[in-house]
Amino acid sequence: MARNLDMTALRSFVAVSDAGGVTRAAGFLNLTQSAVSMQIKRLEEALDLQLLDRTERKVKLTASGEQLLGYARRILSLNDEVYARMTAQEYEGEVVVGVPHDIVYPAIPFVLNRFARDFPRVKVQLISSYTMRLREMFRRGDVDIILTTEDRCGPTGETLTELPLVWVGAIGGTAWRQRPLRLAYEHTCIFRQGVQAALDRAGIPWVMTVESDSSRTVEASVSADLAVHTSVDGALPPYVERIQHGGALPDLKTTQINLYASDLADGPVIGALAELIRQAYRAP
């Protein structure tokens, strides 16, 4: 007798894998943590397999889970394609979204994936740039929605959350112990002057070892243990880790994640995308 997999459970399983944990996946799916856990358990019982390794702080896939993940992505992709083609598609057009590169992950991919399912005929153009340029593009009407990292929110925006900046370095690296402290930043990084001032107040000598227009160059330099950098907590780039410095480096300020949405664009579409972004940042 044919047996059917639970699509909702499969979607929760993929979300947990992508988010690295049940709690954050629940926020992205707009479900409770217990509901997501129950769906994963139901999927494991249906397959009679353990899919998640729950022995460590961060949830990891078992060998069976890794094997299922590829199938699950293909099944969900086909399901979403069928649904998109066979149901009402009254909204068309293009939405331009601007996001600073250092907060694209982990929220924005989930947002765009969900939006594409809900509005399959709306094209989304994602622009990754620095806050000052995004604010100027928004002022000119070149983008419909932007996220920013700022000390305070502008009059037409809303603050979604406020997060601390943290020191990041190479995994297992030692650059943070060196003096003068070697720094790596983009020329346009909004955080660099505040970080330099914090180091000056703490009496820690520093030198700007890497300056670039490319975030990839900075990330590569940091991951190679050539310098240290700062990131918004929860949005660390790959191949680096938060430095556990035990007070050897100064605490840093917090930054607001602010949302600005145009009131001149297509209301239902822009409103739906803005709400998905809000939901992503409500995730604990």
Automatic annotation (TrEMBL):
It holds the Pfam family LysR_substrate. It comes from the Bacteria. PROSITE patterns: HTH_LYSR. The keyword Chloroplast does not apply. Residues 5-62 form the HTH lysR-type domain. InterPro entries: LTTR (IPR050176), LysR_HTH_N (IPR000847), LysR_subst-bd (IPR005119), WH-like_DNA-bd_sf (IPR036388), WH_DNA-bd_sf (IPR036390). One of its GO terms (molecular function) is DNA binding. Keywords: DNA-binding, Transcription, Transcription regulation. Belongs to the LysR transcriptional regulatory family. This is LysR family transcriptional regulator. It comes from Rhodovulum kholense.
